[in-house]
Amino acid sequence: MTALPETRYARSGDVSIAYQVVGEGPFDLVFVPGSVSHVELGWKVPGLGDFYRHLASFSRLIVFDKRGTGMSDRVSGAPTIETRMDDVRAVMDAVGSERAAVLGLSEGAPMSVVFAATYPERVWALVLCGALIRTLWAPDFPWGWTEEDWDRGSEEERRRWGEPEFMQEMVQSLAPSLDEENLQGMLTLFRQGASPGAFDALNRMNRDIDVRDVLPAIRVPTLVVNRTEESEWLREGSRLAARLIPGARHAEVPGADHPPFAGDSESYLRPIEEFLTETWEERSWEEAEPDRVLATVLFTDIVGSTAKAAELGDARWRELLGAHHSLIRRQLSRFRGTELDTAGDGFFASFDGPARAIRCACAVTEAVKEVGLEVRAGLHTGECELLDNKVGGIAVHIGARVAKEAAPGEVLVSSTVRDLVAGSGIEFRERGTAELKGVPGEWRLFAVDTVSGRGAG
User: Which of 16, 245, 258, 412 pairs with 264 at a CA distance of 20 to 30 A?
Assistant: First the structure.
């Protein structure tokens, strides 16, 4: 392969996503890159080009640049995980891919995890390479960065991005085995793949990423690959992912390089090819359609409804309830929510993304003020059972219990929701821990303080 593959663009909302399709294998493989990529300059890094060619030798390989990087449209700030999921679906739709294997590398892994759990009907296998599962230190994640160290490093990267000496140090820390030709190719790719502001926005988003709660919800065959001597937070995060994802395979290969194409790439590629080929031949997804998905559930109820109904009388109360329902349905339509139930004066809805769900809840709390009402809202993201086009299970019960803890006019979320909306512009106020009736353990809850950034998209 001497000529560059043709670069095309898929429309995702009002943003153009650059992508390429390479190879004619029996199945589709979507490659979700790390923080910075460039679909054309990637081929000019010899090792990366060889890596792509190997993947394309047994698949139809689909590569793309995330919005804000490479040849895709520049955007303000960092996109949320759910916005990136929309971009992947847009690219898959553009190339006619109904179902694909997804390979998430490094910073591309969190979105790949959530995508596989949310849309199992679009994913038949998942591969995670050197996966970013969580960034910051926590008592149950002792390999993470301290906030001070991460912020200090991010500030230096923002300030010195593009300086030849600094860029070389950064790339060599990620891939110490690169020879001069590959090193220079990566330096060019990084400089042209992202601006200082774009990379800083990605750093700020990645700081708060934590997809550990989503890992047990993955129901597609999964392979986790990491190198034995790469950075501890990535290595241990990969090992944790392999333990938490049901039935996941785990391959550790020798070396300290983070990028799969650096160092001994053959030992890295071998388990990937074997896993994908074997999983494709088994075609286990044909035996049964997915019966569980990752979803965000929203519960609302009217504050003081009994007293209000008594004050108004039956006829006027029914009229007010009708206005309330119409206002909520308008917001559900705007934020792509699915109405599931309207028991009494409460609403139960589901969303395929937590940031959209939060924005919808905030819009609802404001909208009902028009008719003199006040609502409380609660949200949780978790694995839900699909029951006749509705969702059920423990995640639904948790969402309902979170709503019960909300104060009048408040939007309250579980820590799982908070951890998945990094980069959204949504800010929270910690509300402490609570025991949710009928749900084991204590739950950290957060009240939505500020909602900024994107609208319905």
Answer: 245
